[in-house]
Every structure is written in C-alpha cells, then in structure tokens.
Amino acid sequence: MNQLYKIIAAIRMKASSDILATAQFFPDKNISTKSQAIAAGWPAQIITEISPNITLDELKTLTIASSPNMVVIPNEGYILAAPSARDIEKIITSKSTNDDYSLPEGRMAGKTVIVTGAAQGFGQGIAESFFQEGANVVIADLNDVKGTQLVNQLNKENRANKAFFVKCDVSNAASVEEMVNLSIIRFGGIDTLISNAGILRAGGLDEMEPSVFELMTKVNYNGFFHCAKAGAAIMKVQTKMKSNYFADIIQINSKSGLKGSNKNFAYAGAKFGGIGLTQSFALELMPNRIKVNAICPGNFFEGPLWSDPEKGLFIQYLNAGKVPGAKSIEDVKKHYESQVPAGRGCRVIDVVRAIFYAIEQEYETGQAIPVTGGQNMLS
Hints:
- The protein folds into two domains: 3-94, no CATH class; 112-298 and 346-371, Rossmann fold (3-Layer(aba) Sandwich), CATH 3.40.50.
- It is 42% helix and 15% strand.
- It has 13 helices and eleven strands.
- The protein has helices at 3-14, 34-39, 56-61, 85-94, 121-132, 144-155, 173-187, 210-241, 265-285, 304-307, 313-320, 329-337, 348-360, and strands at residues 22-26, 47-49, 69-73, 77-82, 112-116, 136-141, 163-167, 192-195, 247-252, 290-297, 368-371.
- Strand 5 (112-116), helix 5 (121-132) and strand 6 form a beta-alpha-beta unit.
- The relative contact order is 0.10.
C-alpha cells in the first residue's frame, strides 16, 4: 500500500482522542509547505508540516494539538482532519476554526464503514442502517446508477456524516484495492469493512456450467479474500496508532455456509469456504486488534435475490425443480417459510443487529453467527 494512504489513516487516528475524525487528502501542490498554507489564508495554529517519508513509528509519537487540523506534506499536498465530513466542508469554505463543529450522532458516530454490494438488497439496508447510526458509509457496487441514487438520497439529510459511492468489482483485486484507496482519500480510513457482495445461480451438477461455477467462486469466495486483504492493510496502520482501538472485517455469509444446499452447491461451497477464511483471518489478525466474523442470514425473501421476477431464487428454484410438487412461486415461498421456526424470512434489521453485536463485542472473533429464525442451530 502506498505510504500516502498510511499517512492519511494515521493522521485521522491522531486527530482526536474523543472521536475518530474524518481526514481527507487534497493533492494541492500550491499548498505543500506550512508557509504556503498560511499565505493562502489558513490559520497557523491548525497547521502541522511533516515529511512524506515519515515512518509510522514517528507518526505515532507526533503531537497534533488541534482538531480540526491541517497536515501539510511537502510536494504532495495537504490533509484536513475534523470531527466530521461536513466540518471539512466548513473548513474549506471559511478557512476558519472558530465555527462550532458538529459531531455525528449514533452508535457508529465518526466511524467509516465500507459495504460492498450496497446498491440493493441486504447491502442497501445495512448501509442505510449504519448511516442512520452516524457512520460515514462507502457504497461499493458495480451498479453505479442505483449506488449513486442511494448516496444522493442519504446525503440529502445534510447530516454530519456522509455517504460516498465507489464502483467496485469484488472479484477483481485491483478494483477492491482502488475501493479502499478512494475510501481513505475521502474519509481517512476504514473502521469496518462489510463484505456483502455476492451472486447466486442455482443448479445441480447436470445443469451447472463450469463458467457459472467459476464466476460464483470469484465473486463469493475470492471477493471476500480481496476485501480482507485490502482492508486489513490499512486497519493495521490504524490499530498501531491507537492502543485501545479495534477494527472489524465482516462477511455476510449465509445459512448455506452452515449446511449443504441441494442443487445449490456452487453457492454453498463458496460460503463454506468463506467461513474457513473467516476463522483463518481471525487467527492471523486478532493480534492486530482486527476482528473477523461472518454473519449467516436466513432467506431474505423480500430482497431482489429471492423476489426478482426474472433472476430471483423463487423463479430459479421453481424452474430447477428444487421444491418437489411446486407449481408456482408462491408454492416455493411457502415451502421455505415452513422450514423456519420463526415462520418468516430474515429481514435487514435482523442482520444489522447481528453485525452490531460482532462490532461492539471486542471479545468475539472467528465466529459464524446464524441469523436464521431457528432454522440453523449451533451445537
């Protein structure tokens, strides 16, 4: 990872002892020394100048007296850090530190969360919930139309926290790394990365084409690896800067990761593998205070994964004959509802509560947490 991104993340962690600040990088070569910043009208008391070759150990001992603050990097530009994304906008506009700076409110106040596959379905609901709880949210998805619409909808609320869209293909390592880099430039770092993006194509051995199997593996299995690798690299910087700080990587897995699924082996296999990755990453990263957990939801009947009239699982399972005797989508739905002791499908709020538990419980890592209404019970 480029040293500049590490510096941005470190500055963010140093910017405030009370709340994780937002730090944003501005590659303005006209302001790359403290004297140039003062000449441009920035208050001298908020400016710190550092070398672009500064080490993380040197950054750890660096004293930043003010928040908001400005860190100038010769020949690179400058970083602004403030309690919230909205406050950075105020500073840029007024170049003043006399305003009353607003703090985001909620249980994720001041933190930054990336949600992949966030333009619709579970991902959208998760992103909306975290935004309402005060987080800066990165909406990462291939669907730039729906993703941008969601960001615009959230930012209309004019909250101290902000939403930001990044187009990302989780099956591509370079795309995921770019997602992380853009998130760092926009919000200064990542506190929670939720690997939610996934696809499902049902079918038995006779129907499944190798190309479809490979695509599902790339998205559902490799995608989690790419997210964990890129996210952990910057989270290690953040945990090094602050001794009592934890970061989280969370995979939205599935009940199909806990039990085999008939004529759905490509999806179930990747999800089983995801739990193996979760446990292995957890062992490796907990010494860095990075927790890794998987949430295993039951069937989300209300979302497009199931209810899309052309590609949804209801129509796929009906056509594949997965439910014996089913003659309609309603027959398929009733079949699956009857298997749940709670008598209904999983909802966004059920998953969000499980995610909050995983984040807020510092003594929990490497777990696959079922959210299935009793359909899957751990022994």
